[in-house]
């Protein structure tokens, strides 16, 4: 019976375990996990939601005020003091409603709406920053993983070269120093392998931190990089930056809000009103009504002029900030695009010319060493050349991914 229960439990658990997929195979899997779990993104979203909730109260009417006045509570000394509305000389109930001058409520609502747009843009910018960080970390994670494979392949190749050198030494065709050199080369690569494994685990910890996971949680091995679009048009990218960059969006909302604040400062030249109605109770009945109109007198003109000048300067400062940010972002876009094109050109040269030349050099050196025409130092140097060429190709591919991530960070959207 117990064995049947254990078997049934295993059958129910195994499909669930098989259905689980670890993030890390692709950058898209990491971005999906970050979108669901990132604490930074959740914080920015909540702040944006809070800002949206401030729009309605900003344009709402103030709460009305109820005032109750008990007059002549001793009825000219004919009775003891009382707080009963029907027992005093008369009771006046005043209900007052403050009314801002026409247009002020709309302007306050528009200012709050602009602040909500800023918060929404900051939320989008937070996601762009998180996505950029994850894309960059993934490129480094992939590069380190591929470098580890390359180092392991070179260690295996060095073992083969060591065996060849040992056979030639045994046959009296080479010096013992050749085998020792191969062992020394392998020891150096073993040491490099340890360092790369440590870096690989460190990058996995950084990625887990971005996903709000335990830093020791397992990640899938990176499988492939995203394709890098070629022939990007600089003018079209600049247009997309102006339209979609979240930082520029936040600054535009700031300028709009400053403009509405300036209009509100000028509208404060006009008075606000308070309307009231006041029934008067004598005994047990209401026998009189009165109406009230109250308004403030905007006589402190110098104070208002200062507030108006302040709003003007704030609008000018917001406009200048938006302009300065636009120039900086367009400059960064040009530099990032140039770096991406340079990395793409370097990859093409390395893949089509440098790597094939290094492979031919190694094959020639290996054949020459086996025939006794080339010394072992030349063979090791040829091995290093092909290794460096492969490593350079991996680095240029990872560099393109990082530059692509920077480009998408500026655009605020994926290409």
Short key terms for the protein model shown above:
415 residues, alpha+beta, Outer membrane efflux proteins (OEP), four-stranded antiparallel beta sheet, 10 helices, 9% strand, disordered N terminus
* Unreliable parts: 1-19
Mean pLDDT: 85
Overall form: elongated
Percent range for helical residues?
Answer: 55-70%
| Main sheet record | 4 strands, antiparallel
Strand order of the largest sheet: 1-2-3-4
Structural class: alpha+beta
Q: Report how far the terminal alpha carbons are from each other.
A: 59 Å
Number of helices: 10
* Beta-strand proportion: 5-15%
**CATH topology annotation:** Outer membrane efflux proteins (OEP)
**Cα gyration radius (Å):** 38 Å
Compressed to H and E, one letter per element, the order equals HHHHEEHHHHEEHH
Specify the CATH class. Mainly Alpha
Q: Tell me the CATH superfamily.
A: Outer membrane efflux proteins (OEP)
The overall number of domains is: 1
Can you name the CATH architecture?
Answer: Up-down Bundle
Number of strands: 4
């Amino acid at each position: 019976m117990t064995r049947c229960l254990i078997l049934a439990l295993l059958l129910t658990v195994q499909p669930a375990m098989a259905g689980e997929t670890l993030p890390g195979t692709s950058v898209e899997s990491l971005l999906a996990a970050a979108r669901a779990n990132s604490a930074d993104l959740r914080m920015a979203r909540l702040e944006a939601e809070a800002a949206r909730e401030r729009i309605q109260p900003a344009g709402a009417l103030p709460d009305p005020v109820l005032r109750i006045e008990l007059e002549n509570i001793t009825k000219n000394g004919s009775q003891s003091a009382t707080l009963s509305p029907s027992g005093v000389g008369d009771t006046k109930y005043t209900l007052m409603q403050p009314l801002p001058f026409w247009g002020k409520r709309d302007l306050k609502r528009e200012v709050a709406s602009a602040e909500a747009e800023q918060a929404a843009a900051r939320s989008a910018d937070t996601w762009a920053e998180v996505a950029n960080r994850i894309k960059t970390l993934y490129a480094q994670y992939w590069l380190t993983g591929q470098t580890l494979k390359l180092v392991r392949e070179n260690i295996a190749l060095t073992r083969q070269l060591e065996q060849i050198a040992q056979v030639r030494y045994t046959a009296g065709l080479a010096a013992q120093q050749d085998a020792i050199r191969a062992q020394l080369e392998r020891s150096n690569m073993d040491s490099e392998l340890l360092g790369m494994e440590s870096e690989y685990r460190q990058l996995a910890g950084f990625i887990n931190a971005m996903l709000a996971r335990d830093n020791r949680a397992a990640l899938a091995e990176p499988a492939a990089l995203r394709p890098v679009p070629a022939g990007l048009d600089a003018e079209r990218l600049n247009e997309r930056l102006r339209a979609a960059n979240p930082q520029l969006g936040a600054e535009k909302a700031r300028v709009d809000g400053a403009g509405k604040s300036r209009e509100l400062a000028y509208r404060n030249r006009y008075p606000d009103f308070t309307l009231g109605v006041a029934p008067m109770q004598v005994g047990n009945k209401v026998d009189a009504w009165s109406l009230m109109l109250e308004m403030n007198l905007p006589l402190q003109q110098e104070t208002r002029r200062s507030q108006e000048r302040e709003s003007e300067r704030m609008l000018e400062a917001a406009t200048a900030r938006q302009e300065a940010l636009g120039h900086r972002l367009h400059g960064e876009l040009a530099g990032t695009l140039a770096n991406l094109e340079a990395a793409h050109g370097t990859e093409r040269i390395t893949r089509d010319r440098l790597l094939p030349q290094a492979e031919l050099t190694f094959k020639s050196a290996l054949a020459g060493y086996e025939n006794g025409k080339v010394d072992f130092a030349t063979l090791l140097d040829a091995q290093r050349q092909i290794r460096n060429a492969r490593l350079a190709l991996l680095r240029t591919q990872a560099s393109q991914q990082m530059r692509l991530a920077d480009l998408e960070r500026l655009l605020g959207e994926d290409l």
